[in-house]
Design goal:
By secondary structure, the chain is mainly alpha-helical. The radius of gyration is 16 Å and the shape is elongated.
């Protein structure tokens, strides 16, 4: 739910500001949220970590991925058609 509300809110913000939504660019944005969610769920349900500790771990992973992407200018690969449109 956090990924959906975060991405949805970001899209609404960017559309109202007449900018290309961040989710459609190459920045590591939703990917960091998904990774944090997977870490949270895995820590809680698979390894039996308490809900609070699993949530903190998931948030930490999300923050580290996002800050690393900003610091080192990491980008996601993009799909581009060649000049002939193939």
């Amino acid at each position: 739910m956090g990924v959906v509300t975060g991405v949805g809110g970001g899209i609404i913000r960017d559309v109202l500001a007449r900018e290309v939504p961040m989710i459609l660019r190459t920045e590591i944005y939703a990917t960091a949220c998904i990774a944090g969610g997977i870490v949270h769920a895995t820590a809680h349900y698979t390894f039996g970590m308490s809900l609070e500790n699993a949530a903190m771990l998931g948030m930490l992973v999300t923050l580290i991925i996002r800050l690393a992407a900003i610091h080192w200018h990491l980008k996601l690969p993009t799909f581009a058609l060649d000049d002939r449109g193939k």
